[in-house]
Amino acid sequence: MPGQHRTHTMRYLSEELPFSAITGVTTSRIARKRRLARRLTAKAVALDAAAGALVAGLGIFEQGYYNQLGFGSGGYEHWIAFDPAGLAVSAKARIPRRITSEDWALVHTSRLTRLRGHGSCNLTPAEITRSDMLWNDKGFGLGYCDGPGGELTHHFWCRMKDAEHGPYTITWISFQTPDQFLELMALLRNLGDQVRLVRMREPPGVQLQDLLAQPFKERQATERGQFEARMNAAAYWQVRICDLAGCLAHTHLRGGPVRFNLKLNDPVARFLEEDAPWRGIGGSYIVQLGETSDAATGRDALLPTLRASAGAFTRLWLGVGPASGLAATDELEGPPELLAELDRVLTLPVPRVDWDF
């Protein structure tokens, strides 16, 4: 389905970029292997790109499939499973407000106003949060309404396997300040009298292991058990640039400038009609990256050349990996001196979407 990018955004450092979120692609069992999913997704991206989306993103069922449409894997998301009684936080939690699916509008506003980092996304229509809250009938939330008008400032939404002992899975956690985050962690610790395991995604900018009293002891003691403490990492979302010049106009880097030719291959064009309003970003460009960045169609014989797929260059631009690393593992190649310059200039925080779609 198209992402209604006019209300979605992705943060690139301190800039907000119009974003297209592909929230679901479904193919009937009798319609497999007919390229319908690829063509539908390509068309959805094309429509949003033509209407102004600079970046598109989606969740993946397996690596490689959406690379055919110019997408590239995002950064690792860390999921931590731990005994909440073992949280080493000094904060004290006040009595929270109970949150139900009826509070979806309040919760959605809280999510939109959360503390955000590089790569984070906002999916603005409130119905998205409502559907997320109704997805599981064993969901509940806890939080605090500390806003000047009684707004929900920090909370978490949770689903549970067993109400008494868990495991509990934190679907999302929203807060505006570090102190609010620590209060929510203290609230989780208070559940540890009976709840044996909580699973949550590590929030951007936080190394959750810092708050676990004995993480390795707990992991060894619970290995292969019903309440196994563990840490997993996976890159299960992908993104792609839809408008190269538009994205670079919002790119302001501390290093640079570095100028180079960019030869981009964008496979999405194979799945679009000839009269599609947008046919990808393939082509030859002269690119500058620095405090002021830009891209213009053409080639300068005096500049070094970087060759890349749309997905690989998106990963480089977003900071998923350095140029030298992507040259080894993805569709990206260039002179060693240029790769070294790109490594120096594109030193970005780890991108975290912080909102599954």
What amount of the residues lies in strands?
Answer: 25-35%
Element-by-element helix/strand order: EEHEEEEHEHEEEHEHEEHEEEEHHEH
Oligomer: single chain
What is the gyration radius calculated from CA atoms? Answer: 22 Å
Class derived from helix and strand content: alpha+beta
> Describe the biggest sheet?
7 strands, mixed
Question: Helical percent range?
Answer: 10-25%
Give the low-pLDDT segments: 1-5
What name goes with the CATH superfamily of the largest domain? Answer: SCP2 sterol-binding domain
Q: What is the average of the pLDDT values?
A: 94
Q: What strand order characterises the main sheet?
A: 6-8-9-10-11-5-12
Query: How many separate helices?
Result: 9
Can you tell me the overall shape?
globular
> The CATH topology of the largest domain, please?
Nonspecific Lipid-transfer Protein, Chain A
**Cα-to-Cα separation, first versus last residue:** 11 Å
Can you tell me the CATH architecture of the largest domain? 2-Layer Sandwich
- Total beta strands: 18
Write down the domain tally: 2
> So what's the CATH class of the largest domain?
Alpha Beta
Please give a structural write-up.
The structure is a single chain. With 357 residues, the protein is of the alpha+beta class. The chain folds into two domains: 5-75 and 237-345, SCP2 sterol-binding domain (Nonspecific Lipid-transfer Protein, Chain A, 2-Layer Sandwich), CATH 3.30.1050.10; 77-233, Gcn5-related N-acetyltransferase (GNAT) (Aminopeptidase), CATH 3.40.630.30. Helix content is 24%, strand content 26%. It has helices spanning 36-50, 104-112, 126-134, 178-190, 215-222, 244-249, 310-318, 323-329, 336-345, and strands at residues 8-12, 15-22, 55-59, 72-73, 77-82, 97-99, 121-123, 139-144, 154-160, 168-174, 198-201, 230-234, 237-241, 258-265, 283-289, 294-297, 305-309, 332-333. It has a seven-stranded mixed sheet with strand order 6-8-9-10-11-5-12. Strands 4-13-3-2-1-7 form a six-stranded mixed sheet. β1 (8-12) and β2 form a beta hairpin. The longest helix is centred in the N-terminal third of the chain and has 15 residues, at 36-50. The radius of gyration is 22 Å and the shape is globular. The termini are close together.
